[in-house]
Specification:
Elements: H1 5-9, E1 15-30, E2 35-40, E3 48-52, E4 66-75, E5 83-94, H2 111-114, H3 125-146, E6 151-152, E7 158-159, E8 171-172, E9 192-194, H4 199-205, E10 211-219, E11 232-241, H5 246-267, H6 269-278, H7 283-292, E12 296-299, H8 300-308, H9 326-335, E13 341-344, E14 368-373, E15 377-384, H10 389-399, H11 406-413, E16 419-425, H12 426-434
Parallel strand pairs: 3-5, 6-10, 12-13
Antiparallel strand pairs: 1-2, 1-4, 2-3, 4-5, 7-9, 8-9, 10-11, 11-16, 13-14, 14-15, 15-16
Helix pairs in contact: 3-5, 3-6
Length: 454
């Protein structure tokens, strides 16, 4: 029977004959009359120990080569592992020149070194652990929404709108579009872009469903090399109809964060321990503490007050009406004892056209909320949406977007409902949970200015 390394390691029977294991050699140790191999296949952090006669093709076996091993799975006499495979046959499927292979046996490679080899870094413990956690987190997020009555919507990747209105768009055009035939209108007749957010399409669906979500790639032509920005990242977005309170939306944000994190702690214990040990010491304790606490809440106006009264020297002076900078966000979270912090009711002029007007004054605000987390700053952005036709219409008029958003206005014209939602940056979530410094190390193939490897 073919077993994965994970299945083999979990095997409790005394001894099992004719077991086949396939994977990559993580270490080779040859003694006079015995050869020890460790084989890993990505199914678990641990590798399976293979014990064999030294004359079993020992020469082609090297760190990094791929192998297929047949043998008997037995209880291991060694303390470090529960079982080992006594090999009767070892077949090298793909040799590997260990001198040229960029990753070395028993060496810890710094993340920026591993990043140079996106085609090979899944062979390292750190990156393969990350990818297993990423996969479990994806499944946990889907489970959270599906089990709470949300319908999953595939929102489009190509769109003709700029949801955030920030002008950070990648334009899409066909390479073979027929310029010889004089068709200058482009493939879609209108300018088309890679989506920056699925929100507007989710809002369409929230006109017929009570709860919807999407979880897909989003794209931003942000000219930033920062440790928390990518040009292509995954966003988890939800939209809830029939809600008139921002607190309802904040509750879903907090529940999503806690439920996903709880799932990771219980489903990826080895990986969480690994990151706790080698990447961010103390991380597991911090997470467990955080799960027990209610997140904090502060209005934007209070936040500006806190910042202005701080003794820290900021690069950007905090001022009512200005966007919170990363340094401000990190300070606020620290100020709140490193507990995630909801900042609510931002200035009207800072948030996109769809955000619901609080109609207050003289400091005019909207019903928007960001969730700030330790070490990262902004993790979620959300808001109540403007569901009142007249108010939305005059805001779009002012922006000269009335024409463009006729369809969006019609959602308000035909059975409008009070609703709200949010988006969570999936890579920032992983950074936050695992304590990983750079966002480029939590996505298989990072895209950022001047870099589109593979
Ligand atoms: O705050 P943002 O721009 O909000 C929206 O796009 C809303 N339309 C979402 C919604 O309400 N449905 O983005 C949401 C989150 C941010 O809080 C951040 O975590 C992440 O997406 N994000 C990025 N992550 C990585 N790289 C970037 N360049 C990011 N820009 C935003
Ligand atoms: Mg935001």
């Amino acid at each position: 029977a073919r077993l994965s390394v994970r299945e083999a390691l979990a095997s409790l029977e005394e001894s099992r004959k004719d077991i086949k294991i396939q994977g990559w050699v993580r270490s080779v140790r040859s003694q006079k009359d015995v050869l020890f191999l460790h084989v890993n296949d990505g199914s678990s952090l641990e590798s399976l120990q293979i014990v064999s006669e030294p004359n079993l093709k020992g020469s082609a076996l090297s760190f990094g080569s791929s192998v297929e091993v047949v043998g008997t799975l037995v209880k291991s006499p060694h303390k470090k592992q529960s079982v080992e495979l006594k090999a009767s046959d070892i077949r090298v499927l793909g040799a590997c020149d260990s001198y040229e292979f960029p990753f070395k046996l028993k060496e810890r490679h710094p993340p920026d070194y591993a990043r140079q080899y996106p085609h090979l870094r899944c062979r390292t413990n750190t990156f393969s652990s990350l990818l297993r956690v990423r996969s479990e987190a994806t499944a946990a997020i889907h489970r959270f929404f599906q089990s709470n009555g949300y319908v999953h919507i595939h929102t489009p990747i190509i769109t003709s709108n700029d949801c955030e209105g920030a002008g950070e768009l990648f334009q899409v055009e066909a390479t073979n579009w027929d310029s010889a035939a004089g068709d200058k209108s482009g493939f879609f007749d209108v300018p088309a872009y890679l989506t920056v957010s699925g929100q507007l399409h989710l809002e369409v669906m929230s006109g017929g469903f009570t709860r919807v979500f999407t979880f897909g790639p989003t794209f931003r032509a942000e000219n930033s090399q920062s440790r928390r920005h990518l040009a292509e990242f995954y966003m988890v977005e939800a939209e809830v109809s029939f809600t008139e309170s921002l607190e309802d939306i904040m509750q879903v944000m907090e529940d999503l964060f806690k439920s996903t994190t709880t799932a990771l702690l219980s489903r990826c214990p080895e990986e969480m321990d690994f990151f706790n040990r080698y990447v961010s010491p103390g991380q597991k304790d911090r997470l467990e503490q955080l799960l027990k606490q209610r997140f904090m809440i502060m209005s934007y106006t209070e936040a500006i007050d806190v910042l202005q009264n701080s003794r820290d020297a900021f690069r950007y002076k905090p001022q009512w009406g200005c966007d919170l900078q990363t340094e401000h966000e990190k300070y606020l979270v620290k100020h709140c004892g490193n507990i995630p912090l909801f900042v609510t009711n931002y200035p009207y002029d800072l948030k996109p056209f769809y955000t619901r007007d609080n109609e207050d004054g003289p400091q005019h605000t909207v019903a928007a909320v960001d969730l700030l987390v330790p070490g990262i700053g902004e993790l979620f952005g959300g808001s109540l949406r403007e569901e009142r036709l007249d108010i939305l219409q005059s805001r779009l008029d002012g922006l000269g977007l009335n024409e463009t958003y006729q369809w969006y206005l019609e959602i308000r014209k035909f059975g409008s409902v009070p609703h709200g939602g949010f988006g969570m940056g999936f890579e920032r979530y992983l950074q936050c949970i695992l304590g990983i410094d750079n966002i480029k190390d939590v996505i298989p193939f990072p895209r950022f200015p001047h870099s589109c490897l593979l």
